[in-house]
Amino acid sequence: MIVGSQKPIEEIWEMVRDFKKVLVFGCNTCVAICHAGGEKEAETIASLIRMRAQQEGKEMVVDHLGVMRHCEPEYFDPVMDEVRKYDLILSTACGVGVNFLSDRTGSVPVYPGINTSFYGAVEAPGSFVELCAGCGNCILHMTGGICPIARCSKTLMNGPCGGTNDGKCEVSKDIDCAWYLIVERMKQLGTLEKLSEVLPPRNWSTSRDGGPRRVSLEHIRAYEAQEGQDSGTAGGMK
Amino acid sequence: MAPEKTEEAPQPYRPYGAELKETRPYSPCRAACPAHTDVQAYVGLIAQGKYHEAFEVITAPNPIASVCSMICHHPCEQSCRRCAIDEPLAVRHLKRFAIEKSLDYRRAKRRLVKKTKGKSVGIIGSGPSGLAAARDLADFGYDVAIYERHPVLGGMLASAIPPYRLPREMLKEDIDDVISKGIEVKTNCEIGRDIKIDDLEKRHDAVLIAIGLSLSRSLPIPGVGGPGVLLAIPFLQDVAFGRKPALGKKVLVIGGGNVAMDVARTARRLGVKDVSMVCLESAEEMPAWKWEVDEALEESIKINHRWGPKAVRREGAGVKGLEVVKVKSVFDQNGRFSPSFDNDQTSLIEADTIIITIGQMSDISFLKDSVVKVDERGRVEWDPATQMSSARGVFVSGEVVTGPGSAIAAVVSGHRAALAIHLYCQGEAIEGNLPVQEKERVEQMPAEVVEKVAREPRLKIKHLAPEVRCDSMVHFEIGYDEAEALKEAGRCRGCGGGAVVDQKKCMACLTCMRVCPYGAPVVTSVSEIRPQYCQACGLCAPECPAEAISMVSYDVKEIRRSLPQVVGRVEPGRKEPLIVAFVCTHHVGVLGFDLPKNARTVPVHCTSRVDVLDLLKAVESGADGVAVVRCGDGTCKYREIAPRVNARVKRGQDLLKTLGMEPGRIELLTASTGNGGNPYATVVSDFSERIKQMGLRGVK
């Protein structure tokens, strides 16, 4: 899931201070699970903004609302008439949700209420860890299920480097050396010999550079396109 | 005095979340009550010090609540889930406490109800069933007249239940509540003697026969006729109306039911030292309630078990005793009452007065040759699906048709009849439109949960000593004082009032499952909180990141919504800090509830229900300081509360800091008996002093 973390109230205040009617709009999926931007946290942020406004002596209406997801229109469409009555929507969804919603609110701006941190897992209640970088070309079968792209500080494909130290990374002793973990795990799996193969330079075209990535499933799109259900995303698929 | 103001019937009080609650399984106490009184709700309200709200919940389904607070056989207690832990909650005594606390309140709210329907209903009999029907019909807007053959209203409650069990002033309050709605009362009016049933039928648009069982059954044994042998109901009526029945020195009561207990214990109070009873059943088989038997034994009443009456032996005109025969068995193989005797074993129980208390029947002689048919066994013909007799527009309710039962069951029958009459008068179908009695209930507590619940014995109710109470007809139970009532109310586990998931909001994040100390939530595609496991602490609700969890009773969101009103106007020139204190209600009886004047108390079922949002909202509403006042770990009724409440308070403090405010404006306080005589007040006063040092917000 996508893990987010809340922005300091001062940063939020700088964003919202000049608006009269603000909706803090929560997203009840990924960012709710990580207690960053679900309905409850949206309410918390709304309360903090109201108190900040009181301190500044500013008249401001700040409400909150939550829907299941900001990344699928069917979830927020039913409340859009209400949502558009505000001067500003502070979305506490991940960046995906903020972008997606922003393309559909006409003249009402959508600002980010949280920082989108990474793709991660719930290690323990309240503890989230990044395990995938979304590079678009998965090689976990080659590395014992441990991703060197997300988990090695240098994103090395043939590690470890000389900075490995008793299983820890030279960047910080709080960071495990991903390649140390990979070697140990592959030993356990009995597949260590796979590492004798040198991984060739990667094709990074599936990753971060080169504009927004898009996945299009022809077998599903075929029908949808026929129905005229086109993207409403700015610059999106026509 | 009848009130002068006429109003539409008031809307019944609905506690927050009542609609949601109706869709959920009932707490076992509520399901067991024939009237489905929401016991869990009113006990919780008592625990919060909201006695008038508790009174409203109590009286909503029950017009004779004061009476029930004295004499009800309380099936709620027998079904209480605490039975599996230690002892049931003392529900009846709590009810009595709330009612006694609401005396002025109930008197002040009596109003004439506008008669909007333009139709009238005549009710024969003013016992529980007749009163219930009268109240409902008056509230519907009908003209209601009650016909009662005795000089006072109340039926058996007034004319037979001995005053040591039911003080008449309690009954009077119930009756006044009903009558004040503008009901015409015709006492000393016996149908058949003073007015014919057929005339009554012409006079009203509908008639209800709610005459109960006012005749005692006698025994067809030799020697029964003649002086010294009395029947229960005339005996009890004599006592009820202040006449002194002639009793000898040795009284023997035949029967083993609750009325027999009333008779024997009344005889004791009339100065008879030697009272004994004889019944067919063994101690285990006796139909009388165990507590009645225990109290009778305390009063030196002897019980002869497993003897059947054979003949009254006389000496001259007077009674010498009762010849009895040994009982072999009382019930047949199918459990039906069918006593068999060993005729070789007989005995004589000496007595100079015998009172027969073996059952009752209705006096329906007034129906002879009337429009209302009576079957060959002398019972009124009726249709339970419509509550109607064989005559259109003539309805029946209560024990005259249901047979002997409890007062509260008769009330329910009265409600049904009132609704049936209303439907009839409005020309609507009755059948299929009367309420269904059976309700789904929260199941028994699983053993693994029982183990996790702290033992906490029931607070015993005090009785006058047997030697004192047998000297008069004075009511012998001493009710709870406020501290006791609050302590006892705190024992309630809140069954059926616990957490419920809004499945539209839940995204199956597992938080509730991880948080719950009792294993109540099960998360599959969404979370489901199993009511039989849920202890209604409320720990899960504030943790839910989607705000998908509500508490059925005393929901956290209810608290939050009401905070601005609780805080009220914030005086800019105030000298004392405005404190909002979220106080655990479980220990108010022990730890004291009277907080300093500058503190606004927010009673919460458990501080685990308080969310960081509540703390922020209190500050936002203008509080200078916000305290969460816990009981100590040693007394907390729930598990694993402290670390989470701590964490929420800490987060509240951190968030205040980000706003440039002093984090110490939010604090977690722990009140225990170590904090002096009034621990809640003491810790809040100290906190208030700290806030004063810190300064009042916005006050220069």
Strand and helix layout:
The complex is a heterodimer of chains A (about 240) and B (about 700).
Chain A: E1 2-6, H1 9-16, E2 21-27, H2 30-33, H3 39-56, E3 61-67, H4 73-76, H5 80-83, E4 88-91, H6 95-102, E5 110-112, E6 114-124, E7 127-132, H7 148-151, E8 168-169, E9 172-176, H8 178-189, H9 218-226
Parallel strand pairs in A: 2-3, 2-4, 4-5
Antiparallel strand pairs in A: 1-6, 6-7, 8-9
Chain B: E1 6-7, H1 18-22, H2 28-32, H3 39-47, H4 51-59, H5 65-71, H6 75-78, H7 91-101, H8 103-108, E2 112-113, E3 120-124, H9 128-140, E4 143-147, H10 156-159, H11 168-179, E5 184-186, H12 197-203, E6 206-209, E7 215-216, E8 229-231, H13 232-240, E9 250-254, H14 258-269, E10 274-279, H15 290-298, E11 302-305, E12 307-315, E13 318-331, E14 337-350, E15 353-356, E16 360-361, E17 382-383, E18 388-389, E19 394-396, H16 399-402, H17 407-425, H18 447-450, E20 462-463, H19 466-469, E21 477-478, H20 482-489, E22 499-501, H21 511-515, E23 521-523, E24 527-529, E25 549-551, H22 556-567, E26 579-584, H23 588-591, E27 599-604, H24 612-620, E28 625-631, H25 642-658, E29 666-671, H26 679-694
Parallel strand pairs in B: 1-2, 3-4, 3-6, 4-5, 6-19, 8-15, 9-10, 9-15, 10-11, 26-27, 26-28, 28-29
Antiparallel strand pairs in B: 7-16, 12-13, 13-14, 17-18, 20-21, 22-25, 23-24
Helix pairs in contact in B: 3-4, 3-7, 3-20, 4-7, 5-7, 7-20, 9-17, 13-14, 22-24, 24-25
Mean pLDDT of chain B: 92
Shape, per Cα inertia axes of chain A? globular
Strand content of chain B: 15-25%
The class by helix and strand makeup of chain A works out as: alpha/beta
Describe this structure in words.
- The complex is a heterodimer of chains A (238) and B (700).
- Chain A is built from nine helices and nine strands.
- In chain A, the strands form three sheets. Chain A has a four-stranded parallel sheet with strand order 3-2-4-5, sandwiched between helices. A three-stranded antiparallel sheet of chain A has the order 1-6-7. Chain A has a two-stranded antiparallel ribbon with strand order 8-9.
- In chain A, 30% of the residues lie in helices and 21% in strands.
- Chain A is of the alpha/beta class.
- Chain A has helices spanning 9-16, 30-33, 39-56, 73-76, 80-83, 95-102, 148-151, 178-189, 218-226; strands at 2-6, 21-27, 61-67, 88-91, 110-112, 114-124, 127-132, 168-169, 172-176.
- Chain B has 700 residues and is α/β, with parallel strands linked by helices.
- Helix content of chain B is 32%, strand content 19%.
- Chain B is built from 26 helices and 29 strands.
- In chain B, the strands form ten sheets. Chain B has a five-stranded parallel sheet with strand order 5-4-3-6-19, with helices on both faces.
- In chain B, helix 13 crosses helix 14 and helix 22 (556-567) runs parallel beside helix 24 (612-620).
- The two termini of chain B are 55 Å apart.
- The interface between A and B is medium-sized, with 25 and 22 residues.
